[in-house]
Amino acid sequence: MQVEIKHFNELTLNEFHDLIALRIQVFVIEQECPYQELDGKDNVGYHLILRNEEGAIIGTTRILPEGISYPEIAIGRVVVAENFRYLKLGHLLMEKSIQFIEEKFGKQDVRLSAQTHLVKYYASHGFASTGKEYLEDGIPHTEMLLKVKPE
What global pTM score does this model have? Predict the structure, then answer.
């Protein structure tokens, strides 16, 4: 497995195509949730890319600077291709995303919008519910925050 993180401006057209194709496959087709996948935020974000041994993109996250989705830095669009989920690669995606944020921006709070059935998964990476629960595109979500402890 190969992990790299690129700003939108560093992505090739093929990489961006493959990232969007994977996100649509999972969030729109697999989850049967028609929504506007291209939301105008990709071009200001960083994109974690997880490739298999053949070089195909099998996982991704999107990291947005503070002030775009939330006052804090945000992690979103966390996805692993269905036929690779048995490897539990989502944990690698979150670990590498959090590590990147610390290296690029320093230790900062990170906010995300979790599908509610994944709250325990995000909690295992230090995120806690803010108590805000809502429907987003017909799917229950919970807002979560990774609070950086004072040093």
Answer: 0.93
Q: Give the DSSP letter of residue 151.
A: -
- Number of structural domains, the chain? 1
Report the CATH number that the domain containing residue 8 is assigned in CATH. Answer: 3.40.630.30
One digit per residue, the tens of pLDDT, for the chain of length 151 reads 899 999 999 999 999 999 999 999 998 888 888 878 889 999 999 999 999 999 999 999 999 999 999 999 999 999 999 999 999 999 999 999 999 999 999 999 999 999 999 999 999 999 999 999 999 888 899 999 999 866 5
In a domain, 62, yes or no: yes
Domain that holds residue 84: 2-146
Closest among 3, 143, 18, 150 to 74, alpha carbons compared: 143
User: Is residue 22 a contact partner of residue 113, using CB atoms and an 8 Å limit?
Assistant: no
